[in-house]
Design goal:
402 residues; mainly alpha; Receptor-associated Protein; 3-stranded antiparallel beta sheet; 17 helices
């Protein structure tokens, strides 16, 4: 049973809108007419509206890589689209995803194109997915497009895993170092506070510093927590504005060590997405618009938006990209050569492969660098705290012996 949204007027002239469940569009119209509502507009509900009407759980993030690869394999085996979708819906573990696939099956049965039916579920199928499916339907090469789409997603997921592995280790290490430091400053140092206060001698500078930090954490911890919460709130608010997102993306790309890695990731994602769309037969302007939306970086999005305007008036794609510092000269030159030679999608794929390798090398270097760095940081912190504790004790013992 599908869900349909409607807008209409009651017999009293009051505007009405809502969601109804029915087997098909005709049954939905009959149901609304029985409510004495004159229909002005009726259409299939979005996935979120359908979920609200049917009580089906919201879909978790489905593994589109596996779904696409299975879809491509079955299509290449000669199985019809409807049979493929039926099989994939039956084996879907997530009820929300299963419901979405069944909605798509109903829409395709009613004569709607597969890509159009998928567009009604943007929470699951992104723009790039639907546009590539549309290109496959238009060219009659859906099998090849699905295979290319699966390869694109697999490459993107592999890159994500590389980034996660690069970020997980330093984050966990920082949390461990921070936790041990806070434990020493809050749990150990205060126990020596009274003893140090009873000493009739000046304390070393390192001891005074450690005691000050310990007092700050134990006495004014709520100010520190409040400051951290404020920073998080400001960060989230900045991400909601165009200017704020631009400033954050600029700051991220300029970070030491991680900035270069993020830039390589952005270039790889741009090149692979753009190349895959062009190879799939998506027109260059539509491909640029999708690439801009999926770039994940406002600076690249703005540069691509300028490139779209440039292409519209007959100028080259490489010129506006060269004006954005995010794009290295090598990338701009290769795009320029690709435009002139008519092999743009091939050169973009080579750029993506090159930067994928660069990301892997950077991740390996980062991982090998972080381990000794964290050991050094931990040793410095623990050594400083131990020194702060024992220097006054040793000085007191020395004075007592004299």
């Amino acid at each position: 049973m599908a869900a349909f949204t409607y807008i209409g007027k009651s017999s009293e002239g009051v505007k009405k809108k809502g969601v109804v469940k029915a087997e098909n569009l005709l049954a939905a119209r009959d149901l609304i007419n029985k409510l004495n509502i004159r229909i002005e507009k009726i259409e299939p509900a979005t996935l979120i509206e359908s979920i609200s009407a049917t009580g089906v759980p919201k879909p978790k993030n489905p593994d589109l890589v596996i779904f696409t690869r299975q879809f491509a394999t079955m299509i290449s085996s000669g199985i019809s689209i409807m049979e493929c979708l039926d099989i994939l819906a039956d084996q879907a573990d997530d009820k929300g995803f299963c419901y979405a696939l069944n909605c798509i099956i109903d829409r395709v049965k009613s004569g709607v194109d597969l890509s159009e039916a998928m567009l009604e579920h943007p929470e699951i199928f992104p723009d790039i997915y639907c546009n590539m499916i549309a290109a496959g339907e238009a060219s009659g090469q859906l099998e090849g497009i699905l295979g290319r789409l699966a390869e694109y997603q697999e490459a993107s997921e592999a890159l994500k895993r590389e980034i996660k592995s690069a970020m997980t280790y330093p984050v966990m290490s920082l949390l461990m170092v921070g936790g041990i430091t806070v434990f020493l400053l809050v749990g150990i140092i205060p126990k020596f506070q009274d003893m140090f206060n009873d000493m009739n001698q000046a304390l070393p500078a390192v001891t005074l510093f450690v005691l000050f930090v310990s007092s700050l954490l134990t006495t004014y911890w709520y100010y520190l927590v409040g400051t951290a919460i404020t920073i998080v709130v400001i960060f989230k608010q900045m991400k909601k504005t165009a200017k704020g997102k631009e400033l954050l993306d600029f700051a991220f790309l300029k970070m030491p060590v991680f900035g270069g890695l993020l830039q390589k990731v952005s270039i790889s994602r741009f090149s692979r997405t753009f190349s895959t769309l062009l190879k799939s037969g998506v027109p260059i302007l539509a491909a640029l618009e999708i690439t801009a939306k999926t770039s994940g970086n406002v600076l690249i999005e703005n540069a691509v938006a300028n490139a779209i305007e440039s292409v519209k008036i007959g100028e080259t794609l490489s010129k506006p990209l060269a004006e954005c510092w995010v794009f290295p000269k090598m990338v701009v030159r290769m795009i320029s050569i690709g435009e002139k030679s008519g092999a743009l999608e091939t050169l973009l794929a080579k750029i993506a492969d090159f930067y994928d390798d660069q990301v892997r090398a950077a991740v390996d270097a980062l991982t090998s660098l972080i381990e000794p760095l964290m050991i050094g940081v931990m040793g410095t912190i623990v050594g400083t705290i131990v020194l702060a504790i024992f220097m006054p004790i040793m000085a007191m013992q020395k004075a007592a012996m004299q």
